[in-house]
């Protein structure tokens, strides 16, 4: 069972989403793995519950930042590896509505996207859980693996039932190579996650929603999207992606800096030019780009991150036709460019101009004209043997990405 054709088409057409890693870990401002990396015992980490009060959280503001960025879906952590639920789950008291904040931010985000109508909300769910007595503490708790599966599947049912139409369920934390480490915080699951039953429930309750499981392995039946993390498809600079691309639509997820969760010390924020390049390169191989922000414990998307997202949105307001609704380019990439296409319209993204000419191969014979997408400025185009040459004076280039339309 897979997502509907309509759902798969929508997902591939929208191309650009916002990933949101938000939880108790934002209070410490180090990273979302802080409970593990600092070996924080559960009772000590649980003390953060009484400190979580994001008074500056405004769901409409977050949604408008995504909209201004040109992001058409938002994927938020419903529960990350620390086991803390960021929505009003009936299956655990370890949840955001039991903090001084007392509200359900996911309910407020779901209502905010529904008010807009042009953005969808999706949910990240961690398969591993450093807090749950039936995942990490089965020996001490006497609980069984089936008790954890009941919790995990039950939460997914809640998310697929209580928050309207969703974009996706995004799973994370089942890395087959995982093994027991000295902290006993990670260990191979007690059994399978019963994916067939889990995915079947999602596809029944949310027929248009796509299932992504960030396993870095060959996709399983019922998974609709192959994910690459911190890498473009087929690459493995991050060291944990399978380099093989399978015959599923693809999504690339990346941080806007170097951390998924809020990190107060992280200054390595990607520049607008790099963000637009990664969006264009992802689209050029038919992949979505899911760009992550880690909001603060006060409930704010870091203003610098919001500003960088808005720069991408400004470029998309002029050049979005070359991203939204397109598919992988048929014109071969060059040192200067990549391409996307939609039907007989071909979009050459000139990311690193190296001369006043674009020398392209693989340009369909039907192409007879070239123009700048931003203002329809006509450009000279001629054939030179198997090559197609487009005259693009450097003075006409866009500092972020110059889009040349061939038709
Ligand atoms: O361990 C997680 C990490 O915290 C983050 O959620 C990323 C997002 O893709 N996934 C895992 C690392 O591969």
Detailed description of the structure:
- This protein has 407 residues and is an alpha/beta fold.
- The chain has two domains: 5-322, Glycosidases (TIM Barrel, Alpha-Beta Barrel); 329-406, Sandwich (Immunoglobulin-like).
- The chain contains ten helices and 17 strands.
- The protein has an eight-stranded parallel beta sheet, sandwiched between helices.
- Helix 4 (59-69) crosses helix 10.
- The chain starts with a helix and ends with a strand.
- The model has no long low-confidence stretch (mean pLDDT 94).
- The structure holds ligand FHN.
| CATH fold category name of the largest domain | TIM Barrel
Architecture of the largest domain in CATH?
Answer: Alpha-Beta Barrel
Fraction of helical residues: 25-40%
Could you say which overall geometry the principal axes of the C-alpha atoms support?
elongated
Features:
elongated; 21% strand; 26% helix; eight-stranded parallel beta sheet; 17 strands; six-stranded antiparallel beta sheet; TIM Barrel; alpha/beta; binds ligand FHN; 10 helices; 407 residues; Immunoglobulin-like
Summarize the entry for a quick read.
With 407 residues, this protein is an alpha/beta fold. The protein contains ten helices and 17 strands.
List the helices and strands and how they pair.
Layout: H1 5-14, E1 16-20, H2 34-37, H3 42-46, H4 59-69, E2 73-79, H5 105-116, E3 120-126, H6 138-141, H7 145-161, E4 166-172, H8 195-205, E5 210-213, E6 226-229, E7 250-255, H9 272-284, E8 287-293, H10 303-319, E9 327-328, E10 337-342, E11 345-350, E12 357-361, E13 370-372, E14 378-379, E15 381-384, E16 387-391, E17 402-406
Parallel strand pairs: 1-2, 1-8, 2-3, 3-4, 4-5, 6-7, 7-8
Antiparallel strand pairs: 9-10, 10-11, 11-17, 12-16, 13-14, 13-17, 15-16
Helix pairs in contact: 4-5, 4-10, 7-8, 9-10
This protein binds ligand FHN.
Ligand FHN is lined by residues 32-33, 172, 214, 229, 253, 260.
């Amino acid at each position: 069972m897979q997502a509907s054709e309509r759902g798969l088409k929508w997902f591939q057409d929208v191309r650009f989403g916002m990933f949101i890693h938000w939880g108790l870990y934002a209070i410490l401002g180090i990273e979302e793995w802080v409970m593990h990396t600092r070996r924080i015992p559960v009772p000590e980490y649980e003390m953060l519950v009484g400190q979580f009060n994001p008074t500056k959280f405004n769901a409409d503001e977050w949604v408008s930042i995504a909209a201004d960025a040109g992001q058409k879906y938002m994927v938020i952590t419903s529960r990350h590896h620390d086991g803390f639920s960021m929505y009003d789950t009936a299956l655990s008291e370890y949840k955001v509505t039991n903090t001084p904040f007392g509200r359900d931010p996911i309910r407020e985000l779901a209502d905010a996207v529904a008010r807009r109508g042009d953005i969808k909300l999706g949910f990240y769910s961690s398969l591993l859980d450093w807090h749950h007595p039936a995942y990490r503490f089965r020996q001490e708790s006497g609980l069984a693996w089936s008790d954890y599966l009941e919790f995990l599947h039950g939460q997914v049912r809640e998310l697929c039932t209580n928050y309207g139409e969703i974009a996706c369920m995004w799973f994370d934390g089942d890395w087959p190579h995982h093994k027991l480490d000295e902290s006993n915080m990670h260990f191979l699951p007690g059994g399978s996650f019963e994916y067939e039953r889990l995915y079947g429930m999602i596809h029944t309750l949310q027929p248009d929603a796509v299932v992504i499981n960030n396993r870095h392995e060959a996709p399983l039946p019922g998974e609709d999207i192959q994910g690459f993390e911190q890498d473009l498809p087929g690459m493995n600079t991050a060291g944990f992606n399978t380099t093989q691309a399978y015959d599923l639509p693809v999504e690339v997820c990346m941080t806007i800096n170097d951390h998924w969760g809020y990190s107060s010390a992280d200054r390595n924020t990607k520049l607008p030019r790099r963000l637009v390049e990664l969006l264009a390169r992802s689209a050029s191989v038919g992949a979505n780009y899911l760009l992550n922000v880690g909001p603060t414990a006060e409930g704010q998307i870091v203003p610098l991150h919001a500003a960088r997202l808005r720069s991408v949105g400004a470029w998309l307001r002029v050049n979005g036709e070359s991203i939204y609704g397109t598919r992988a380019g048929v014109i071969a990439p060059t040192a200067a460019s990549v391409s996307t296409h939609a039907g007989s319209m071909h979009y050459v993204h000139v990311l690193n101009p190296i001369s006043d000419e674009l020398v392209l191969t693989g340009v369909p014979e039907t192409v007879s004209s070239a123009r700048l997408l931003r203002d329809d400025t006509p450009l000279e185009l001629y054939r030179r043997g198997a090559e197609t040459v487009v005259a693009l004076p450097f003075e006409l280039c866009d500092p972020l990405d110059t889009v040349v339309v061939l038709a």
